[in-house]
């Protein structure tokens, strides 16, 4: 895509966010729209496919702080309308002033609009003051997707197949945009640089070549698969290795598996965000597993040994006599394996279970216990405060 087309798009509108949206808001909006319009969820729906491409393109710009800054600078300087709203030639606006002159850099005579060239140079494939080509290689955008795994898989690790529909190098033309058997030709108007020089009074300016739209090459016979872009949406299957002990909402990076680069540049990265399904019994604190175990009053009062499940089997835990409800006991080495090979612990929280109904024998036994307890006060501090306040 040429620089003018890039500026002329309203990426904030594509994602349905405001121009001052935070990075998290942009990410949430992209993930919602990408899921809703994903080709796998809308087979044969060309409208959804085009929307998926549009939101992916918008996220690729707005998720990159450098690209977003350059894009915002352009919107502030030239307005935030749709395509053709920036005063480019053929935009349909009144007057004959060619705003594209402002994107050039001043010549050796000094002065002119070189400052704007510095600000917007990145949009045209160059930085202010540098004579690089407008079609210089550009690294591919990063891509993010989501997977959901079971609790036990998060603890032990897993290898998962990942089916992904995303922009990728066109397999028909291998990324050059030309129909197989043909090749793009160097633009004769700019000599392959993507830029042409113009003089206006005492100043010299550079602007994107109108013949090749700043690409430096012209495709006479475009690839039927990608329409000359060199990139098409395709479905591929990757293998993702989830390391043991992965946390919920953690991202795994697959280098070079994102969108393909342009002009021979490296591809972006693929980030896989992991969502862990909660376990019905176990919880987690760092590398420790947690479990709440109901026990009876007599077990806490007299002491006992209880059997507690683990993810790999079971373990015996000794409950000392006189243990209070809510106490946490530790079974060492029964938690999650750490990266250095050591193991976390299993934290067992004891919770006294009170029966909702008592039969006659149970009630009689408890009444006898209460009588035998005599004057034992289980709430001494509260009793003291009540006496001091005169309410006791």
UniProtKB/TrEMBL annotation:
Q: Does the keyword Cytoplasm apply?
A: yes
Matching PROSITE patterns: DNAJ_2, ZF_CR
Q: Give the UniProt keywords, A-Z.
A: Chaperone, Cytoplasm, DNA replication, Metal-binding, Repeat, Stress response, Zinc, Zinc-finger
Domain annotation J: ranges: 10-75
Residue ranges of the CXXCXGXG motif repeats are: 170-177, 187-194, 209-216, 223-230
List residues of the CR-type domain. 157-235
Which compartment or compartments is the protein found in? Cytoplasm
Signal peptide positions are none
Which BP terms from GO are recorded? Answer: DNA replication; protein refolding; response to heat
The entry assigns this protein to a family as follows: Belongs to the DnaJ family.
**Task performed by this protein:** Participates actively in the response to hyperosmotic and heat shock by preventing the aggregation of stress-denatured proteins and by disaggregating proteins, also in an autonomous, DnaK-independent fashion. Unfolded proteins bind initially to DnaJ; upon interaction with the DnaJ-bound protein, DnaK hydrolyzes its bound ATP, resulting in the formation of a stable complex. GrpE releases ADP from DnaK; ATP binding to DnaK triggers the release of the substrate protein, thus completing the reaction cycle.
In Swiss-Prot or TrEMBL terms, this protein is called Chaperone protein DnaJ
């Amino acid at each position: 895509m040429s620089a003018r087309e890039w500026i002329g798009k309203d990426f904030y509108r594509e994602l349905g966010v405001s121009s001052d949206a935070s990075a998290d808001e942009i990410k949430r909006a992209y993930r919602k729209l990408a899921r809703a319009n994903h080709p796998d969820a809308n087979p044969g729906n060309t409208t959804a496919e085009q929307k998926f491409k549009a939101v992916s393109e918008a996220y690729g710009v707005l998720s990159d702080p450098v690209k977003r800054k350059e894009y915002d600078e352009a919107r502030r300087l030239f307005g935030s309308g749709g395509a053709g709203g920036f005063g480019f030639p053929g935009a349909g606006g009144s007057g004959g002033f060619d705003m594209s002159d402002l994107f050039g850099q001043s010549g050796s005579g000094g002065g002119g609009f070189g400052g704007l060239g510095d600000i917007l140079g990145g949009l045209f494939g160059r930085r202010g003051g540098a004579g690089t080509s407008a079609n210089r290689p550009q690294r591919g955008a990063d891509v993010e997707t989501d997977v959901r795994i079971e609790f036990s898989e998060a603890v032990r690790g897993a290898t998962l197949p990942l089916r992904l529909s995303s922009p990728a190098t066109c397999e028909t033309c291998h990324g050059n945009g030309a129909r197989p058997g043909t090749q793009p030709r160097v633009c004769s108007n700019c000599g392959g640089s993507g830029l042409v020089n113009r003089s206006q009074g005492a100043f010299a300016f550079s602007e994107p070549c109108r013949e090749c739209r700043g690409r430096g090459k012209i495709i006479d016979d475009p690839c039927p698969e990608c329409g000359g872009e060199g990139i098409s949406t395709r479905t591929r299957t990757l293998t993702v290795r989830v390391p043991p002990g992965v946390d919920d909402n953690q991202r795994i990076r697959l280098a070079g598996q994102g969108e393909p680069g342009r002009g021979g540049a490296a591809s972006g990265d693929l980030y896989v965000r992991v969502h862990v399904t909660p376990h019905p019994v176990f919880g987690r604190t760092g590398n420790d597993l947690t479990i709440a175990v109901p026990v009876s009053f007599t077990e806490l009062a007299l002491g006992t040994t209880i059997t507690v499940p683990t993810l790999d089997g079971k373990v015996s835990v000794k409950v000392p006599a006189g243990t209070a409800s809510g106490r946490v006991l530790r079974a060492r080495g029964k938690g999650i394996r750490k990266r250095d090979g050591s193991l976390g612990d299993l934290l067992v929280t004891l919770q006294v279970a009170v029966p909702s109904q008592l039969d006659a024998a149970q009630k009689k036994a408890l009444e006898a216990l209460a009588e035998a307890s005599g004057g034992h006060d289980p709430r001494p501090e509260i009793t003291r405060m009540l006496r001091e306040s005169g309410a006791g």
